[in-house]
């Protein structure tokens, strides 16, 4: 067995077994000097059991339990776009919000900044130039609010964003560039003007859709702000009634939605909102439909906590890895944990799932739901112009994002320094003409490095060294190559980097090779063949 990690409490060992057997019995033999012990089932004993049924057993390896994350997701570098905020022209967004009255639903569809599908198309060259090879779009379907998480129509692009044909063109242009595209699916709840809920409001207990929703108390009405709804909502949002996804009719409706966008529009996958509040059998059926329609489509769940039960091969390929953000926030942005504590939490995160699953986890620092990471970096920084500590902390976090195990996802505008603690700020208009902080060269450099070295996609992750301050050194390695990443997340120089290779770094900042020293918030990356 190979030691693969250590934390404050344990050393972790791993052995990979290959072969044609689908039933496996195993035990652990431990030897210390002259003493030999056997660990099996719930027993530690000096004698090996005669009955093989007493040892650990993996009775049958079901096909559904074998992690089968699409290969392209592991190689993806994702650019996450919040459509309303990104662009309505080449390198521009007018911020001229124009609400739209939708005759089909009878509702006014609101915008805030006026981004469009056409704006995304016209800036694909910008995204590609940075090195990204996958788009993830927050909701694009017809909805009343600018964020589009209150869906009215699951079969059409919101008119404020453009037309269905605009989206077909976007998908085609994305694929022509060898890129992929993932869209946001909101199946936990709908708008209170979604046709089924509207029918419940109008027809009450006689509605054929009354079982599509939870907790209905008749007569159902749309409450004023501050009134208690007579139905179950998502997160107390009165305009978002919760869908009963265990209902066969609801399930069939959304299975068709799944099939429609994969088949008719050729999207490459779904990011699935509030996935842990949806019926698990719904997701099993959804996976079956998605994989049958498009075998290499990906399913990424929005789950903020431990996701083991959802990543067993029968529901999702990946989840949004908010734990990655939390650990990086506490180490790089806030500086409230040292490298030893960072290692312990990082190792726990990496060992939580099988390695093929970890390779496809959607690692992120920012999203449409959280304060911008660069803003967090300012809270523990002593700023001084262009070389301010805030940006050095942010740079280290992005370095970690783009060199770690998993699929990195970057929220639009991070490369241009967008900041913000409140929703209206962290979803701000893309600052095309006036970047807050131009980090495009940093992203180009790190993404190019990641895409040019298969260690970052296929290589294992081994921590080499850390201390009680900010020193953290790790390796990404395959059978033929090794890349060593060393960083110092503290605001003081550290001269104890003795494990570094005796070669010139391929990328570095604030690194002193002669003294094996990395200055405050510095880093160095070495390639060892």
Automatic annotation (TrEMBL):
InterPro entries, alphabetized: GH, GH13_cat_dom, Glyco_hydro_13_lg-like_dom, Ig-like_fold, O16G_dom_2
Keywords from the named record: Glycosidase, Hydrolase
The keyword Cytoplasm appears for this protein: no
Classification via SUPFAM superfamilies: (Trans)glycosidases
Repeat as UniProt keyword: no
GO molecular function, a single term: hydrolase activity, hydrolyzing O-glycosyl compounds
Positions of the Glycosyl hydrolase family 13 catalytic domain: 80-450
Any one GO BP annotation for this protein: carbohydrate metabolic process
Pfam families, per database record: Alpha-amylase, Alpha-amylase_N
Full protein name: Alpha amylase, catalytic domain protein
Origin species: Gardnerella vaginalis
Taxonomic lineage of the native organism: Bacteria, Bacillati, Actinomycetota, Actinomycetes, Bifidobacteriales
């Amino acid at each position: 067995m190979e030691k693969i990690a250590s934390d404050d409490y344990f050393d972790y060992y791993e052995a990979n077994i290959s072969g044609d057997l689908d039933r496996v019995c195993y035990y652990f033999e431990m030897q210390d000097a002259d003493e030999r012990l056997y660990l099996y089932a719930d027993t530690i004993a000096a004698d090996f059991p005669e009955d093989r049924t007493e040892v650990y057993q993996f009775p049958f390896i079901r096909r559904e339990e074998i992690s089968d994350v699409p290969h392209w997701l592991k190689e993806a570098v994702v650019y996450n776009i919040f459509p309303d905020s990104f662009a309505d022209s080449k390198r521009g967004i007018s911020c001229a919000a124009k609400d739209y009255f939708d005759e089909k639903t009878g509702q006014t569809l609101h915008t805030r900044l006026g981004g469009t599908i056409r704006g995304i198309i016209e800036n694909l060259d910008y995204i590609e130039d940075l090195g990204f090879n996958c788009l993830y779009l927050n909701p694009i379907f017809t909805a009343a609010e600018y964020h589009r998480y209150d869906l009215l129509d699951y079969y059409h692009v919101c008119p404020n964003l453009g037309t269905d044909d605009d989206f077909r063109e976007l998908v085609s242009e994305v694929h022509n560039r060898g890129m992929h595209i993932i869209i946001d699916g909101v199946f936990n709840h709908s708008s209170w003007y979604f046709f089924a809920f509207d029918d419940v409001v109008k027809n009450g207990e006689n509605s054929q859709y009354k079982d599509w929703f939870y907790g209905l108390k008749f007569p159902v009405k749309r409450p004023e702000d501050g009134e208690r709804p007579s139905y179950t909502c998502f997160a107390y949002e009165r305009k978002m009634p919760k869908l009963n996804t265990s209902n066969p009719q609801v399930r069939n409706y959304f299975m068709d939605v799944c099939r429609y966008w994969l088949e008719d529009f050729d999207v490459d996958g779904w990011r699935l909102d509030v996935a842990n509040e949806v019926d698990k059998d719904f997701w099993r059926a959804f996976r079956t439909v998605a994989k049958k329609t498009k075998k290499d489509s990906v399913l990424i769940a929005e789950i903020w906590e431990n996701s083991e039960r959802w990543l067993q091969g029968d529901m999702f390929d990946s989840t949004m890895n908010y734990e990655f953000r939390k650990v990086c926030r506490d180490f790089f942005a806030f500086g409230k944990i040292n490298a030893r504590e960072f290692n312990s939490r990082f190792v726990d995160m990496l060992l939580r799932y099988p390695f093929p699953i970890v390779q496809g986890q959607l690692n992120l620092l920012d999203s449409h739901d959280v304060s911008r990471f660069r803003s967090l970096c300012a809270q523990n920084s002593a700023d001084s112009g262009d070389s301010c500590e805030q940006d050095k902390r942010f740079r280290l976090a992005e370095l970690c994002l783009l060199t770690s195990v998993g699929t990195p996802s970057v929220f639009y505008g991070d490369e241009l320094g967008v900041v913000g603690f409140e929703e209206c700020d962290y979803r701000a208009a893309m600052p095309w003409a006036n970047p807050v902080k131009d980090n495009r060269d940093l992203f180009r450099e790190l993404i190019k490095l990641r895409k040019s070295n298969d260690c970052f996609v296929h290589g294992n992750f081994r921590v080499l060294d850390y201390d009680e301050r900010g020193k953290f050194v790790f390796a990404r390695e395959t059978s033929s190559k090794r890349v060593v990443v060393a960083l110092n997340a503290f605001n003081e120089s550290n001269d104890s980097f003795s494990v570094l290779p005796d070669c010139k770094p391929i990328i570095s900042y604030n690194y002193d090779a002669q003294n094996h020293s990395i200055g405050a918030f510095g880093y160095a990356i070495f390639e060892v063949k």
